[in-house]
Amino acid sequence: MDVAAKAYKGAVASELNKIGLRYEDLLNSSKPSVEEALALADPDVLNGRMRRLKRASDLCVKQKRYIDYAEPLPVEEVFKLELSHDVDKIEARDFEFQALNLHKK
Predict the structure, then answer these.
(1) How many whole angstroms separate alpha carbon 73 and alpha carbon 90?
(2) How far apart are CA 13 and CA 11, in angstroms?
(3) 12-51 pLDDT, tens per residue?
(4) pTM, 2 dp
(5) Apex CA 32: angle with CA 101 and CA 58, to 5°?
(6) Do 101 and 95 form a contact (C-beta atoms < 8 A)?
(7) Keyword Ribonucleoprotein on this protein (predicted)?
(8) Which of 33, 47, 67, 96 has its CA 20 to 30 A from that of 23?
(9) Which residue in 47, 10, 4, 8 sits closest to 25, CA to CA?
């Protein structure tokens, strides 16, 4: 599975590089845990995320690629985690809260 995982990771990285996004930019911001993590995130993280999303939508409308304008990001940068740890902690907190309140049902 490691060989397939590395190949898949490379394929995802190349597709994200075409439009200049990071893997975390694909998180659904309407999900409560992601929404809370975004609210607690550093303003620079939010600003960068919004710029990447706007740039990607602009490039898709123009049918252009990010690689035409800038060098592709290294794989480490594409999969850089800035929000995932916070999202995991929030989901664990919510799960613990639900588990502790099972007796109320």
Answers:
(1) 29
(2) 5
(3) 999 999 999 999 999 999 999 999 999 999 999 999 999 9
(4) 0.81
(5) 170
(6) no
(7) no
(8) 96
(9) 47
